[in-house]
Amino acid sequence: MQRKKVFITRKIPQAGVALLEKSCDVMINPEDRPLSREELLAKVAEVDGVIGLLTDKIDAAFFDAAKNLKGYANYAVGYDNIDVAEATRRKIPVSNTPDVLTLATAELAWALIFAVARRVVETDAVMRSGTWTGWGPLQFIGLDVSGKTLGILGAGRIGAAVARMAQGFGMPLIYYNRSSNPELEAQTKARKVSFDELLAQSDFISIHAPLTPETRHLFNRESFSRMKRTAVLVNTGRGPIIKEDDLVWALRNGVIAGAGLDVYEFEPRMAEGLSELKNAVLLPHIGSATNSSRDGMAELAARNLLAMLASARPPTILNPEVLG
Ligand code: DGY
To answer: What's the pLDDT at 1?
Structure first.
């Protein structure tokens, strides 16, 4: 049988590449940077399958360019970069990488919660600057976490994992989600609430909803104004769920107490003024950046693509209706 041609839009862990190389000719973008739109469209012209990233736009023009395409596997759990309806219309299977990064991302949400609450980054900078004069009763007072109310936006896999971890800190849990999550409620006594209630009652809010037209800019001036002034907002989901200029306004004016961000509205850029704020902890989209998660994502993306190329059922297909 003729070997299928596969293109990977950026270097990924070898675990996934090795799986593909057993039966496919694999080409990989040799440079460790996202391809420009023109480069991407040119590279996919002759290939049967593509593994791409959240920075690659997979839309009608992409499918037009990739005229031999039998499947597209996203190297990410989030798939707002894919026009799934368009793929489905063309009967092209597309997939994502759930589960393998759930705990890593949930752990990073906790890292941000604690980093903001206890001013970890700000006070680390004080030590490095050599300006600390010794212990003082009024220095660097932060926020308590244990016993405070945690609000989860989006009670899918990652949101539920963050909620389960919160039990160790005795935190009452509330969540806002389109549908109820009875399993989460049974495990953690989490209570489903309206968005208004989530804003009004949470001491910490952690964002885990997908980016959709409904969630874009859900956090804006108006919603910040309905949060507690002592509240902290953490985002390890997708940047555009927060209107970032409005967040700068809220942090600067004490409308909320702090924010921990791993994702940004216009990555890799940040809103003006954000980097000057001591009550913000800012990370470069590293939610899934552990060895086991990234290897798991590579293997799962490869297994999805191999199934697509064999007209079999991909383990985590997003549009199963295209399967015959
Ligand atoms: C995802 O998978 O969607 C993350 O944002 C990157 O790991």
So the answer is: 67
The closest residue, in CA terms, to atom 3 on ligand 1 is 78
Domain count, the chain: 2
pLDDT at 3 over 90: yes
Q: How far is residue 147 from each of residues 10, 109, 185, 233, measured CA to CA in Å?
A: 43, 17, 18, 17
Helix (H) or strand (E) holding 40: helix 37-43
Residue-wise pLDDT for 285-314, tens only, equals: 999 999 999 999 999 999 999 999 999 999
Mutate to test the pocket of ligand 1, among 235, 288, 293, 297 (most ligand atoms within 8 A of CB): 288
- Rg of the chain on CA atoms, in Å: 21
| Rounded-to-integer distance, Cα 56 and Cα 13, Å | 18
201-240 pLDDT tens trace: 999 999 999 999 999 999 999 999 999 999 999 999 999 9
CA angle 78, 84, 89 (to 5 degrees): 170
Residues 133, 225, single domain; the answer is: yes
Is residue 5 a contact partner of residue 23, using CB atoms and an 8 Å limit? no
pTM: 0.97
Same domain, 135 and 85: no
Domain of residue 129 covers 102-282
157 with 214, same domain?
A: yes
Whether 170 and 157 share a structural domain: yes
**Both 93 and 131 in a single domain?**
no
CB of 98 closer than 6 angstroms to any ligand 1 atom: no
Q: How far, in Å, from the CA of 132 to the mean position of ligand 1?
A: 38
* Percent of the chain topping pLDDT 70: 100
- The pLDDT of residue 39: 97
Which residues are tagged catalytic?
A: 238, 267, 285
